Amino acid sequence: MIKVDSLVKTYPASKGNPPVKAVDGVSFEIAKGELVGLLGPNGAGKTSTVKMLCGLVRPDAGRIYLNGQDLLAKRSMALAGVSAVLEGNRNIYWRLTTRENLEFFTALNGQDPKTLVSQIDHYLQFFNLSGKANVEARQLSRGMQQKLAIAVALISGSQVVLLDEPTLGLDVQASYEIRQLLKTVVTEEGRTIVLTTHDMNVVQDTCERVVIINEGRIIADELVKNLLDLFRVRVYRIVIQGALTDEQRSALANIPAVIIESESPEQTSLSVRLEDSSVLYEVIGVLGSGNSLIESIDQEQNNFERIFLELVEGGGHSA
Amino acid sequence: MREKLLLLRAFFKMEFITFRRYWMNSLGGMLTLYVIFLVLFGGYQGLRSLGGVEGDPAEVIVVGYVLWFFMLSTYQDVWYTIRTEAQQGTLEQLYMSIHPFGWIMGAKVVARFFINLLLVAILLGAALFTTGVTLNLDLLSLMPVLIGTLLSSLGIGFLIGGITLMFKRIDSYTQMVQFILIALVALPADRVLWMRLLPGSYGATLIRNILVDGATLWGLGVGNLAMLFAIGLLHLAVGYGVYTLCEKKAMFLGMLGHY
Ligand SMILES: Nc1ncnc2c1ncn2[C@@H]1O[C@H](COP(=O)(O)OP(=O)(O)OP(=O)(O)O)[C@@H](O)[C@H]1O
Ligand SMILES: [Mg+2]
Prior knowledge:
The complex is a heterodimer.
Chain A: E1 2-11, E2 20-30, E3 35-39, H1 46-53, E4 61-66, E5 69-70, H2 75-79, E6 82-85, H3 98-108, H4 117-126, H5 142-155, E7 160-164, H6 172-189, E8 192-197, H7 200-206, E9 209-214, E10 217-223, H8 224-230, E11 234-241, H9 246-253, E12 258-263, E13 267-274, H10 278-289, E14 294-299, H11 304-314
Parallel strand pairs in A: 3-8, 3-9, 6-7, 7-8
Antiparallel strand pairs in A: 1-2, 1-4, 4-5, 9-10, 11-13, 11-14, 12-13
Helix pairs in contact in A: 3-5, 4-5
Chain B: H1 2-49, H2 58-88, H3 90-96, H4 101-131, H5 139-167, H6 171-186, H7 201-211, H8 217-220, H9 222-253
Helix pairs in contact in B: 1-4, 2-4, 2-5, 2-6, 2-7, 5-7, 5-9
The structure holds adenosine-5'-triphosphate and magnesium ion.
Adenosine-5'-triphosphate sits between chains A (11, 20, 22, 40, 42-48, 198) and B (253-255, 259).
């Protein structure tokens, strides 16, 4: 469906700003029916990558194939089955109603809105917008506008749908709703969706696969569940009463997995990062040797956010 | 072909819906222009009656004014559409559609032409009513000449639209186009031949021939009409050519949106 090969984009210097290497050798392939997240911090190059896929930004080097067509050589053929929502709620006409927007974009893409009435009704209902069908888009809430923008991208039947930050600026509920709807679109309609986000939670609960991008380069391309497994390192936090003895302190210093997080005459807190549980027993042994009273041992939640930060800070991981 | 008709229909629908919904805005803008016209016209008549100026008869002023409005509207339909849609983010959607951008603007312009026609009819009616001027409203002769003249406006629209894509904040400069258009409409292209090459000037002359002097389409001569269209198409081609260059550059710089 989508094949990107060694994409490079440097924005030239302008108005005293130095040139920006926004995308630096990005390659990936996405098959039909996948829901892939393009994740990265601000300025990582997500929007630039997506806009190149849309044929709106011209790459300096690299190739893009959409439905087997070379985008740079056969633009209109390649873009035929592709639609995108690029600026959240901004790519709809604010003076047209919800229904009029759907009708306009149907016609723009070569289909007669009159023959697609039931399709339009279906999406109005699916996105919970039936009650707002005759309301001008500018009067909708931000979440509704965003849903309408996505509905507009779906209405022409494109097999590939690209969404740049589809949940940006939405409240928790609207964001949740959109994520659920996207999952349904992929499972029920078999469309291919690529979404960008800087929010790991969106990826964790929406996407099967994630491509993590930082400073224009891909630092991980994995199934979300594999990535979680791969980093299934447990971190325990141990809190003891009182300070450590000198012997304990030097013994713990020999165990690299241990970090003394805080220490005071009343209470000491350690964090133990371990790949296998034997280290934990070793640590508890050291603590027991000084007769320290353990107040609590907690396992910290392993989440996508930490993995993401580790990857971004650690400069990458090749799987 | 079917797809192009659907495109045209979609823009007709969009334009008429927004016009119906926001006609107060359009008429409000027109009212301002109309008041300016009245002030200018009154001042001009005053000067003439004092014998201070030798000048064009009132008919010529009215025709020039209305034609200027039509040319301005058409130019803005292109330029302003490109500008606002780039800002809103809908321009990128248009670029991703199955149609080349030129066709899309074409459909938009044709739809807008009919709305402009309506507005111009109102404006002309009001101007004729308040000034007591009468004109030879031979629509059949007028339409082809009008269209030939407006081709030049489209060219200017694409030209300025392209520059806007590249430089974004140039509204204060584009204001000047309004005044340049006044000059172009008023130039004596009937007497000074090279002026016919300028946008709108020759068309304005021919339209005056019809409306004021009572010429018919055939009376104008096929050669002259052909020249009008050749000049109009030339302006359109140059404007669209510049636009295409700017569009390429904007895609290279990632500025088709509102970055
Ligand atoms: N048109 C442009 N001209 C110059 N620099 C640009 C342009 N567009 C983006 N950049 C720069 O390129 C880099 C990547 O930008 P991009 O918008 O692709 O990142 P992003 O991952 O989408 O970030 P965000 O999460 O902030 O949306 C940034 O440093 C940005 O400032
Ligand atoms: Mg972005």
